[in-house]
Design brief:
The chain is mostly helical and 162 residues long. Helix content is 77%, strand content 0%. It is elongated. The model has no long low-confidence stretch (mean pLDDT 91).
């Protein structure tokens, strides 16, 4: 029986989590582009807000949020949602701000889930987001950020967020 050297195990973990990070980013880019190509906008946000208000599976606190926030600025969210999805995707593919991007991914996916707007990819994306957030240092080992950090001194407290 062969055993992996600790360094080889860390390298393997970094490669696997980086691949998961990039896959999650690609899924977010796809989601954002699909919305832009479909003409996603204020009408879609209003539809989500109105359907949430009438859906018994949507929690009351989310109904309140949907009506008071989404329903009051549908044009902003109609442009903002696909833009956020694209930015999350780009950040994750590049490995820039890996931990904040993965946490934002979890929050956005939970928001979709609460609105009962679940599609087949979202549970997979949520699982990927949780793995990337949990192992963010390994997931960002092979990234644009890691290249930049090799060239500049950054305090350890900030490194985990990059």
């Amino acid at each position: 029986m062969t055993t992996l050297r600790p360094q080889a195990g860390r390298r393997t973990a970094a490669i696997l989590t980086a691949l998961l990070r990039v896959a999650l980013g690609a899924l977010w880019i796809n989601e954002g582009l699909l919305k832009y190509h479909a003409g996603f906008g204020a009408a879609d946000i209003l539809l989500v807000s109105q359907s949430a208000a009438q859906n018994p599976r949507v929690p009351d606190f989310y109904k309140l949020f949907s009506g008071a926030v989404l329903g009051q600025a549908p044009a902003v969210f109609g442009v903002g949602v696909p833009l956020v999805e694209l930015c999350l995707g780009i950040a994750l593919v590049l490995g820039v701000f890996t931990l904040p991007a993965a946490l934002a991914s979890v929050a956005l996916l939970c928001s979709y889930w609460l609105a009962d707007q679940l599609i087949a990819e979202y549970p997979i994306m949520l699982a990927l987001s949780a793995v990337v957030a949990t192992f963010a240092p390994a997931a960002s080992r092979y990234s644009v950020t890691s290249v930049a950090l090799r060239r500049r001194s950054v305090p350890a407290a900030l490194r985990r967020w990059l």
